[in-house]
C-alpha cells in the first residue's frame, strides 16, 4: 500500500470518527441549550471560518451569487435548517437513545439517496441495491427499537422525534445532491455560500421562535457552560472533517472512501459505552447489518456494469454525500 493511499485512508478515518463523536458531544450540550440556537451558533462560527478560508483561497469574487441566490437559499436551508435543527431536536427529545439513532440515521444517508433518486427520477435500482436497502432498513429498525417491536405501539411519543430525524437526514441528502447544480464551483465555495445563506434562514427561525416565546436566547453563562462542546462541534465535525474528507476522497477512489462512513456509528458506540450507556445485542446486530449493506452496495458500484450499475447521477451524489460541510 503506497503512501498516498495510507494518507487518504487516515484523512477519511479522521473525518468519519469526528462525525461519530458529534452526537455524543451534542447530547451533553443539548442538556443546556435548545437545538435551534445550538445549530445556529455552531454554524455561525463555522461560516465565519469558512468565509476566511474561501477569501484567502479564491478571493472576494467567490462570494458572488451569480444569479443562484434562490437555489443557494433552498439547499442551504435543507442543510442548516432542516438537517441540523431537526436531527438535533429529535436527538434531544429521545434522550440518550437518540444519540445512537442519530448516528444510525447518518450512516443511512447513502441508502436514503437511492430511494430519493428512485422516487424523483423513476429509475428503479437493481435488485442487489434494493436488497441492500432492505437489509439496512432491518438493521435500523433493530437499533431504533432495541429489539422490542412494541416500540411502535407503546412509544408513540418517540415516533415524532424519529420522524424529525428522518426528515432531517433527508434534507442533508437533498443538499448533497444539490452540489451537482454547481459543478463549476469548488466544494469549498458551495459549502461556504450555502452555510452563510442557510444560516441566515436559521437566524430567521430562531428570531421568530424567540419573539413567539417558544425559544429563549441562551445566556452567556449557558454559552460558557458548553464552550468546549461548541468548540469541538464547530472545529472538528464542522471544519476539520470537511477538509479531511475532501482531501481523502481526492487520494482514494470514491468507492473505497465511502466505506469509511461506517466508522460513524462505531465511534458513537465506543464513546457512549465509555459514558456508561448499556448497548444491547440488537443494537450491535442492527449496526452490523447496516455496515454490511453499505459496504456491499458501495463495492458493487465499483464492479457493476450495464443494468446493474446505478445511475451516474446517484454515483456522483454518493461521492459528494458527505464531502460537504457536516
Describe it.
By secondary structure, the chain is mainly alpha-helical. The protein has one domain. The chain has 15 helices and no strands.
The percent of residues in helical segments reads over 70%
Low-confidence stretches: 305-312
The SSE order reads HHHHHHHHHHHHHHH
Work out the count of structural domains. Answer: 1
Give the gist of this structure.
The chain is mostly helical and 326 residues long.
Task: Describe the protein's topology.
Layout: H1 3-29, H2 35-58, H3 69-94, H4 96-107, H5 109-121, H6 127-145, H7 151-154, H8 156-177, H9 187-211, H10 220-225, H11 227-251, H12 254-258, H13 263-274, H14 281-303, H15 312-320
Which terms summarize this structure?
326 residues, mainly alpha
